[in-house]
Amino acid sequence: MKNTQKATWPLGSVLLLAGTVILMPSNIGAQVPVTLDDAIARALVRSPTMAQQDQSVRTAELSRRTAWGSFMPSVSASSSGSLRSTSRFDPNTDRIVEGSADSYSAGLSASYTLFQGGRRFADMDVAGADIAAAQARRQNQRFQVILQAKSSFFLALRQGDLLEVARQRVDQAQQTLELVRTQTRLGTATLSDSLRARLDVANAQQAQLQTETALRAAQFALGRLIGERAPVVPERPAMLEPTELGLTDEEIYILAEEESPSVTAAREAVTAASAGVRSAKTAWFPSFSLSSGYNWANQDASLSGGTASWSLGLRASYPIFNGFQRESSIDRAQLAQRVARLQQDDALLAARQEADAALWDLRAAERAIEIALEADLVAQEDLRVVRERYRLSVATILDLVVSQISAAQAAADVVTSRYDYLLARAQLEAVLGREL
Q1: pLDDT tens digit string along 47-105?
Q2: CB neighbours of residue 339 within 10 Å
Q3: For 434, left (φ over 0), alpha (ψ -120 to 50), or beta?
Q4: Contact 66, 123 (CB under 8 A)
Q5: Which of 60, 26, 357 is nearest to 213 (CA)?
Q6: Which of 23, 242, 337, 405 has the smallest number of CB atoms closer than 10 Å to its CB?
């Protein structure tokens, strides 16, 4: 009779094979080490938004150069020459006439606006305020990029630390399994204890695999940010522990309202809008301009001879009625000024709100670190006691597994709270626009 039974794998062999696969190191792509300062510098260079802000600053500087140019005279030169046959048709007499028809001429002209009602000075104020606003927006974007770089850097570091916690969890589960096997040989443990211990090892290995995957993703994200095609390994800075800010809460609020890049940009936008109103109102004043020119003409290709003339003129103009264009431009400028002032008020409140939120996150993270460290000590001691109680057949395997899970979670909370503090501090620096 043919044997139809399927081959089965013992559970222990399956777990051993799974552990071997899970713990196998990944060799996909060479890993690149990078420091925090290097990551920030490279992220700033590669950031498309930073390039856009640099372009905005440059555009504002070009506008100011154009505004400066309006204070200078306009100068232009011209020349011409033409050759014709000596016999040509004269349309005035409908006859063929004889004589030289060659002509050569040159001219130089200049004009200068004497008065425009102060428009040029207002345009200079607008250009200066636009530059200051563009520089403030660039500074704000710079700290946003720094925040993004720090977040990616610390996330990769945190996942590395969490991977170490996961490996310790696997080691603890395997130690428990060995303890259960010892107790089984002594006759004080049951088959259920062995099965639960082996299941706990599998669960710990699965958690380690998920952490390795998250670490790989975080390293690749950091690599993308700094322009690397391979996963990047962050080098741990010398100091990651919480340090004093050196500022009181009220000083932080004042800095946020006075020196925050977003507030500075909004303030300069109000300055530019106010200058725009002044520029629009100059349309009610007359404008005066001075012009002059010098012209030379000759029928021979020679600098000698010919005729020369010059001119000098003063021109004044005043639009009495231009279809309400003046009134419309003034109304638009005043509306833009009102919007800019409302945006400045909102920027002040937003800066204080964001500073307060970041400050409270920082304080909460500091307290969370203390709580997590205390919980970690308690959990480790509890695990030691429960393991000893299980060895003495006083505690159950369920007590031991729960204690191991709690110890691993406490260790993970320590890691998470420490990096939460670093991220909260980076967020506060981004709001204030300065290093703390």
Answers
A1: 899 999 899 999 988 988 888 888 888 889 988 877 766 666 667 777 776 665 677 78
A2: 13
A3: beta
A4: no
A5: 26
A6: 23
The tens digit of pLDDT for each residue in 227-263 reads 888 888 998 887 777 888 778 888 888 888 888 888 8
Structure letter (DSSP) for residue 243: -
Query: How many other CB atoms are there within 10 angstroms of residue 187's CB atom?
Result: 8
pLDDT tops 50 at residue 27: no
Q: Tell how far CA 155 is from the center of its chain.
A: 17
* Bridging pattern class, strands 32-34 and 74-82: unpaired
Instruction: Tell me the residue type at 271.
Output: T
Neighbours of 98 (CB within 10 A): 9
List residues bridging with 317 in a β-sheet: 287
pLDDT band per the 50, 70, 90 thresholds, residue 327:
confident
Distant-in-sequence, close-in-space partners of 108: CB < 8 Å, separation ≥ 6: 75, 76, 77, 78, 293, 294, 295
Q: Rounded to whole angstroms, how far apart are CA atoms 306 and 320?
A: 44
Q: How many CB atoms lie within 10 A of CB 53?
A: 22
Cα 8 to Cα 434: distance, rounded to the nearest angstrom: 64
Q: Cβ-count burial of 28 within 10 angstroms (0-12 exposed, 13-18 middle, 19+ buried)?
A: exposed
Pairing of strands 87-90, 95-98: antiparallel
Of the candidates 268, 255, 244, which has an alpha carbon nearest to the alpha carbon of residue 432?
255
